[in-house]
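forwarding from the other thread:

> can someone predict this with NAP?

sure thing
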Amino acid sequence: MNTRGYVAHAPSAQLVPFEFDRRELKPHDVAFDVLYAGICHSDIHQVREEWGPSLFPMVPGHEIIGVVSAVGSEATKFNVGQRIGVGVFVDSCRKCENCLAGLEQYCSEGMTATYNGYERDTTTIAFGGYSNHFVVDEAYAVHVADTLDPAGAAPLLCAGITLYSPLRHWNAGPGKRVAIIGLGGLGHMGLQFAHAMGAETTVFSHSASKAEDSHALGADHFVVTSDVDALKDHELRYDIIVNSTSADIDLNQYLNLLKLDGTLIIVGLSGVPVKIEQGLLLEGRRSLSGSQIGGVAELQEMMDFCAEHDITSWIELVNADNINQAWDRTVASDVKYRFVIDASTF
Ligand code: NAP
Ligand code: ZN
Ligand code: ZN
């Protein structure tokens, strides 16, 4: 299927228009017209090779919402005309312990990423969601409620699930204190989820200008991280702290804010190794952990949770020819709180 999108041809290159073919439908595939694609900071990290070598040409995008246009001969999960969402991976081995447990994001063979990697055939470069058409195996796509604003729902496919999954895993809820470091695309979703789950919530931000929005998104407390005294007031308070920043920050100043048995979860991935003061972990039997997106079943659960609680991303809609500018503004933490591309402009 002839497809238009935006591509980076080399590391750190500007994105430019690109035409390519999507595969013909296999029996379990669905094709869809993309409505909206979110801009995740991971798109930027990968084109700029901040996590190591990448694969080019690269069509980024793993927060994809569309409307089904065709279904394969044996596909049963979607009907033509229904809304559909695709996130960070489009396949996995389907037989390892983790895949069988619905944790495809931790597939022992490695998940098949939506872009910046090869499809399961190991030779075709996977092109992501910055494009007007998409083809995916139905098992790796989710339903999106018609009641959700589709543009605001696109970022749920990565930013949303990346915060929803650890908050569920570490049991955020009533009686728990949850802090989110960084109010970006991921952070502002985590804040809404933690609040909806019933936890007491705090935002730690390096942007003083985000205080008002934080409270509107459900924060009980807002702390500017340059205020060392204010941070001290939060020592020994938290059950869960999630670091969602894209930058290399000192995590040690947050470990002390955890109470006994509290957990600091890393989801932000600057690509820079961190140095931890081990004593801070020993003192309160604290844990330092990481979490990566979520499996297909949990992605659907989160979509349904969002429909039930009327949660979507706060977005700024851009046309395809503004992608490069939107990337620069994302790096400058100047987006409220996710750029989403209108796919009709590809
Ligand atoms: P984003 O929208 O750019 O948000 C990142 C936030 O980090 C900013 O809004 C800012 O929040 C904070 N920040 C940025 N520069 C900073 C600096 N120099 N010092 C302190 N704080 C700074 O990015 P995103 O799309 O949410 O992604 C965040 C990170 O998560 C990225 O590294 C991304 O690759 C990663 N990620 C991980 C997963 C996963 O599965 N674990 C999934 C998706 C993305 P404040 O202005 O509030 O300080
Ligand atoms: Zn992402
Ligand atoms: Zn597997």
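The pocket of zinc ion (ligand 3) is lined by residues 92-93, 96, 98-99, 107-109 (CB under 6 Å). thats all i got for now
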